[in-house]
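Late entry, evening session. Most of the bench is empty. Finally got around to the prediction I had been postponing all week. Sequence below, unchanged from the version circulated by S.P.
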Amino acid sequence: GVDCHQVFCDNSLGGYSGVEYLAQLGHKRIGLIAAPAYPEVMQRRLAGAKEAMLHYQMDEDPDLIEIVDTQWFEAGYEAGMRLLQMKKPPTAIFSLTDVTAVGVIHAAIDMGIHVPDELSVIGYDDLPIASYTIPKLTTVRQPLLEMGEMAVSFLMKSIENPDVVSERAVLQTRLVVRQSTAPPR
């Protein structure tokens, strides 16, 4: 409700594209991990993921959705452990931040589960850590540089003309396929 310039990513589309990719690989049982630190952003990502699950006719098992307290590694690790210890665990986990996705990969390793042979993992953000993990993390990329450039541009316009009308920009996300995903066994 604040009248100011705003720069966003299409988080719903990002959530949708992660699940869509996993569905196209053949996954039917997908775990989701979201952190409520940024409620609107996470809700949009989660809504997009759930929409893709409906579109691809997957069961929406509420036990497969983990809402964690933070976006830290430990939260992803603990949520990953809970999901992977289920009687019928997911074949893929879409963690809605890269840092929690890295936690999921470590949980899988500690349980003797091989990524991506036995579990596919996708993150969200495309932080530098995504390309440093082993295996390299498949992720939904936010155009962070472009977002920053656009925000600075909006700020400069406001400084030059305080009466300028507020603008809102929604930039597109993009799936970056690396090594942490594969068809289910």
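Two things to note before I forget:
The two ends are 47 Å apart (CA to CA).
The chain has five helices and eight strands.
Will write this up properly tomorrow.
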